Amino acid sequence: MYSFKNDYSEGVHPEILKALTESNLEQSEGYGEDSYTKKAIELLKEKIKRSDVDIHLFVGGTQTNLTALSAFLRPHEAAIAANTGHILVHETGAIEATGHKVISIDVSDGKLRPEDIKPALETHTDEHMVKPKLVYISNSTEIGTIYSKSELENLSKFCKENKLYLYLDGARLGSALCSEENDMDLSDLANLVDAFYIGGTKNGALMGEALVICKDSLKEDFRFHIKQKGGLLAKGRLLGIQFFQLFKNDLFFDMAKHANAMANLLKKGISEEGYKFLTHSPSNQIFPILPEKVIKELQDKYLFTIWEKVDENNSVIRLVTSWATKEDKVLAFIEDLKNAAV
Amino acid sequence: MYSFKNDYSEGVHPEILKALTESNLEQSEGYGEDSYTKKAIELLKEKIKRSDVDIHLFVGGTQTNLTALSAFLRPHEAAIAANTGHILVHETGAIEATGHKVISIDVSDGKLRPEDIKPALETHTDEHMVKPKLVYISNSTEIGTIYSKSELENLSKFCKENKLYLYLDGARLGSALCSEENDMDLSDLANLVDAFYIGGTKNGALMGEALVICKDSLKEDFRFHIKQKGGLLAKGRLLGIQFFQLFKNDLFFDMAKHANAMANLLKKGISEEGYKFLTHSPSNQIFPILPEKVIKELQDKYLFTIWEKVDENNSVIRLVTSWATKEDKVLAFIEDLKNAAV
Amino acid sequence: MYSFKNDYSEGVHPEILKALTESNLEQSEGYGEDSYTKKAIELLKEKIKRSDVDIHLFVGGTQTNLTALSAFLRPHEAAIAANTGHILVHETGAIEATGHKVISIDVSDGKLRPEDIKPALETHTDEHMVKPKLVYISNSTEIGTIYSKSELENLSKFCKENKLYLYLDGARLGSALCSEENDMDLSDLANLVDAFYIGGTKNGALMGEALVICKDSLKEDFRFHIKQKGGLLAKGRLLGIQFFQLFKNDLFFDMAKHANAMANLLKKGISEEGYKFLTHSPSNQIFPILPEKVIKELQDKYLFTIWEKVDENNSVIRLVTSWATKEDKVLAFIEDLKNAAV
Amino acid sequence: MYSFKNDYSEGVHPEILKALTESNLEQSEGYGEDSYTKKAIELLKEKIKRSDVDIHLFVGGTQTNLTALSAFLRPHEAAIAANTGHILVHETGAIEATGHKVISIDVSDGKLRPEDIKPALETHTDEHMVKPKLVYISNSTEIGTIYSKSELENLSKFCKENKLYLYLDGARLGSALCSEENDMDLSDLANLVDAFYIGGTKNGALMGEALVICKDSLKEDFRFHIKQKGGLLAKGRLLGIQFFQLFKNDLFFDMAKHANAMANLLKKGISEEGYKFLTHSPSNQIFPILPEKVIKELQDKYLFTIWEKVDENNSVIRLVTSWATKEDKVLAFIEDLKNAAV
Questions:
Q1: Which residue from B178, B251, B315, C58 could staple onto B256, CB 3.0 to 4.6 Å apart?
Q2: Judgement on whether residues D336 and D274 belong to the same structural domain of the protein
Q3: Average pLDDT in chain B
Q4: What pLDDT, on the 0 to 100 scale, is given for residue D342?
Q5: In this structure, are residues A111 and A82 in contact, taking their beta carbons and an 8 Å threshold?
Q6: Which of C289, C280, C293 has its CA nearest to residue C317?
Q7: Beta strand pairing status for A314-320 and A285-286?
Q8: What does A219-273 look like in DSSP terms, one character per residue?
Q9: Is C119 found in the same domain as C84?
Q10: Residues with Cβ < 8 Å from B299, sequence gap 6 or more?
């Protein structure tokens, strides 16, 4: 069985493992105050081209989101998210558990635009309702779509005008920024959002997300929140070493490019068989619509997620590629699809 | 500079690193549903001699504590801890952040006995006060002391009689169970407490704590709580592989024994110079009382924590040893102490 | 200006005020442990025909809801509510502030049926999502509709089968139970739901809601939760005296009947002018659709809420009647509507 | 039986009841936006001699405390309170339930001075511990003592220097400000603390506390927090009418003076019998130390609280007087004490 189920099925890129191994017996300070972490943060600031941002390394995405949002928001303030938003559906109410409502906005492509958010602002008008204060977006989104620079500029402008924080969940940011359709870099991001994180777990690290806080007023005392929410890793250097390796020679981007290339290859092959897709997803997640019978056959050899039923005979499946996805497995999948399709 | 500052200064035991490396490119299920994690849990159950316990692997101790306590307690229920308890002072109010008061009990040796807890039960009598419901203890404690089996039996009996859960924080459980003065094993623990965790981070793992839930009524839906609190590691196998290696050939105990031996060596050397200690600590943390002037000199070559002032001229320092502590460094420290003491 | 804006514009029914005045200088126990409260609770149990329920008196509805739901639910459990549900939109995220997600269900008439809830159960399948555990309904609903006995029976059966608690917000329960279309009584309610509250504030009391807990497992330690959430009134007898008066001679029902009669009169008059309504609301809230121009004129003499725009020229308004609504004012309103309509 | 158990045993001062009765059938806006509440707030600002403060009316003290503190503090910030502090022991963990630790300071007289607080600041030094941010004091304290102006000035200066908010719980502020030993007025208070509340419930109102927010940065969006925590009273005018009556002709102070006079009378009588007191309490709560046998006899005719055991034969009792305490009952109590004492 070969898995297209997610992008965290394998361990870590061998380069990173090598760095972890080489430094293994050195002594270092705990809780992210070691020299590896400091170096990684300096390197990230260079890549982002902003020396004034604050950067904190986390183990996982849900923890990053819940720590950031609960630190940024006052008790009566709420987040706004697309109906597919990870914090809305797939984090077991982690944000609500810190006391904050997440307002759901129905959209079809996983992305928020000013016109999607406006109605929520118009209906939340007084103290009998929560106060919308933070817009949560993902790039790439949970259904594989990505934001263009102009889309993000519009959203950023709208958020500033309405005193909303703009927060970007970058669990799959590598794939988004390396998409053929992308026209942004890390530096653009840092200028357009108030905080975002760069996902390592889903792009070749053992684990690790780098939260970048761009807005000054959101920076104060942030390490208290990490510790309080259980996110301060004792051997913090594990994160520092990994992020340094990820960005030292652009390994982060190389891995994301490979993942995207594999997704493109899959997409092309599936398309050529005449199948359609749930969304236009130029990143490492694709959502083909296949007949149940074909799906059944593919399941004999491959692991993937059944996303949702489309009609009685067809379902959407999700295929995810990663830095570790093997081209021969992709080609075999396409071949098996062709045969199944007969 | 050589560090006696803590037991998480180095990386991971080379045996474990080897296992992580060998499995690195295999694909596995995410979120702890992989075969490595399953194997590790089976192995742990054998070691504990209880097939009926539930075991969950966490990344760190604060997260384990906050997830467990918030899952076990209803909103009006409180934890009771010794005044040195980790949850009380060194977790940034993590338990309170989940809504629960921690009642502090003044004791001198970091350990709770029935007579220490009784007054708290007697003063919390009605609905105008929180309801004490869980007794939190650590073994070894935050100041290096350990529980004897009969002490734990007494406490366990008292808790049962008073319908209190007994929870044991085992961040340094390896050192406690391998102390020369210890008379318990994992199986005894599981029979005496309602839940406890076996600490990996401070005993040779990259990171990792294994929470063991012994009481049936505390088990239900526990994975929801892990996810909600941000503790469900995507590449969960990292924890599974490590715990399997830790317990496969008793590496966990061998490492703890080494840490204890190094602490004993330090203690003997310091004692022979005529210095006293803050507590009787038969584990891997010792707390000698040294003249400021001696401390200053030692600080030129060694890292350690200044614990507290004793009087104008003397302070307590904390020295921590680990699986990775080198005997020659310990001997050098004692030699330097001798010379400083002159 | 005469107000149809809500049902808490006036003070308290004179009978109740008389009882408060007569007992004013007596001494009594605090925090609801007085004899008036005990008598009121006994009387309520008789009216409900269940001696085994637990009853607690609260000052207001939001506090009742947040105390009950946070006491009933474990951290990972969520409530389900109709999109118009009071807890969902008009309590400033009070439920989320206690840590629980409220899942919104789109319905057109403010009522939940099994088929509305089923999809939420089907999509919340594992520990990456919250666990739906409590169904929140209102009777009458926030848009004036009411549940029939068979509707509630179906819902109750469905909830039992799916291990969901059924909770009924009775802020306007008086009006619902006295509606011409109602076929239930308090006793039916207590047999069909797990907990509900009988609203006094919106039916002639100064303030006060009586929470009835029917399900045994939800009763334990409930007063701790009231105190913790700030809801334990020092002079608790104020609530006891009022509820005793409300139910001693069925004043509660008489007042609700008057409110409904006034709403019916309004509805008839508005209907006869040819206007339509947003919903079929056989209770004390009605939602006529009127031309903007007519609304403007009425606003010179009357206070009411503009509910929502229907199209460019028409809006829904909300008219609320109460125990204190005067028939001559209702007739005047209809007359003014006729003239405005010309 | 006559009760000296608390100062909320009776209803409301007849003057206030009259005002409630006279306005009873008028219509008014809900949720504290009525003209009565506005007038009361204006009057309070005059009495405080500060037009720039924000004032919000609450139903009860626990709710005032929990709403204020949770609105003022960020998640990692903690309150500091004396070991007798109401929020620390008698509010069922209400502050912790909003996520904040309350740090307990051992003092003997219920009052905090800079030197009591300093050690807490010195031990809470980094992100592994909560950040002390708000000092909670009560005046009069829970054991009847009061602050002098110079004591409060010192504390205020210390808090400003250390960036701590100073919050004063005024559940019994009337009694404190009308004590023979008091040298402050409401205006002094408003200049020395960041927020405080004026207690109505324990000084002749049906219920009600007026929270005064003096510090600008604590004012924003405060009504959202009241609503979210369930404290926004629908018929808010009940509070407005009461506070207007309380302060229109200084009824508030007259009632407090009466309560204090009755406490003084009790104190003098008890003193003359040779009994000692737990504390020097120049307010409406006194804590005589009496032999068990005397206490038993008094319990036949009077209700009061047994505070704590002093030794085998003696206990402290608490006697509380109020605006409604009758002089003849006080004299009878003293007489009975004399006879019991024989």
A1: B178
A2: yes
A3: 97
A4: 57
A5: yes
A6: C289
A7: antiparallel
A8: TTTHHHHHHHTT---TTTHHHHHHHHHHHHTSHHHHHHHHHHHHHHHHHHHHHHT
A9: yes
A10: none
Confidence of residue C225 (pLDDT cuts 50, 70, 90): very high
Q: How confident is the model at residue A342 (pLDDT cuts 50, 70, 90)?
A: low
Q: Is C55 within 8 Å of chain D by CB? A: no
The two three-digit tokens of residue D223, written as one number: 């009504």
CATH number of the domain residue C321 falls in: 3.90.1150.10
**pLDDT, tens digit (0-9, with 9 covering 90-100), for B255-275:** 999 999 999 999 999 999 999
Residue B189's pLDDT band, with cuts at 50, 70 and 90, is very high
- Average of per-residue pLDDT across A73-100: 97
B19–chain A Cβ distance below 8 A for any pair: no
Q: Mark yes or no for CB contact A93/C104 under 8 Å.
A: no
Full domain range(s) for residue C48: 14-249
pLDDT attached to residue D88: 95
What is the reported pLDDT for D107? 97
Spatial contact of A277 and A287, defined as CB atoms under 8 Å apart: yes
Å from A286 to nearest chain C CA? 21
Contact D112, D145 (CB under 8 A): no
B274 and B320 in a single domain? The answer is: yes
Closest residue to B207, CB basis, from A64, A66, A233: A233
Q: Is the CB of residue B83 less than 8 Å away from at least one CB of chain A?
A: no
Mean local confidence (pLDDT), B303-332? 97
Q: Over range D282-304, report the average pLDDT.
A: 97
Residues C276, C242, single domain; the answer is: no
Residue A341 has pLDDT above 90, yes or no: no
Do residues C206 and C101 share a domain?
Answer: yes
- CB contact under 8 Å between B227 and A92, yes or no, is yes
CATH code for the domain of D208:
3.40.640.10
- The share of chain D scoring above pLDDT 70, in percent, equals 99
Q: How many residues does chain B have?
A: 342
Kindly state whether D12 is in contact with chain C, defined as any CB-CB distance less than 8 angstroms.
yes
Which two tokens mark A89? 């559906």
Structurally, chain B folds into a number of domains equal to 2
Same domain, D201 and D280: no
CA atoms of A254 and C285, how far apart (whole Å): 63
Please tell me whether residue C148 adopts helix, strand or coil conformation.
Answer: coil
Separation in Å, CA of C16 to nearest CA in chain A: 29
DSSP-H helix ranges across B6-60? 14-22, 35-48
Q: What is the pLDDT of residue B77?
A: 98
Closest partner CB to D99 (pick from B99, B102, B130): B99
Is D74 in CB contact (< 8 Å) with chain B? no
Point out the residue among D70, D75, D223 whose CB comes nearest to the CB of A127: D223
Domain boundary among D209, D233, D249: D249
Please indicate if any CB of chain A lies within 8 Å of the CB of D30: no
d(Cα B106, Cα B95) in Å, to the nearest integer?
19
pLDDT of residue B342: 57
C120 close to A (CB below 8 A): no
Cβ-defined contact of A238 to B206 (cutoff 8 Å): yes
| Last residue within a domain, chosen from A220, A249, A278 | A249
Q: Is A90 on the interface with C (CB under 8 A)?
A: yes
**Minimum CA–CA partner of D75 in chain B:** B97
B341 — pLDDT class (breaks 50, 70, 90): low
Region C191-210 average pLDDT: 98
Q: Please name every residue paired with A2 in a beta bridge, in sequence order, or none if there are none.
A: A302
D93 to B104: CB separation less than 8 angstroms, yes or no: no
Are C241 and C263 members of one domain? no
Quote the pLDDT of residue D84. 96
Exposure of C325 in the CB half-sphere (CA atoms within 13 A): 35
Same domain, D242 and D256: no
Whether B224 and C76 lie within 8 Å, measured CB to CB: yes
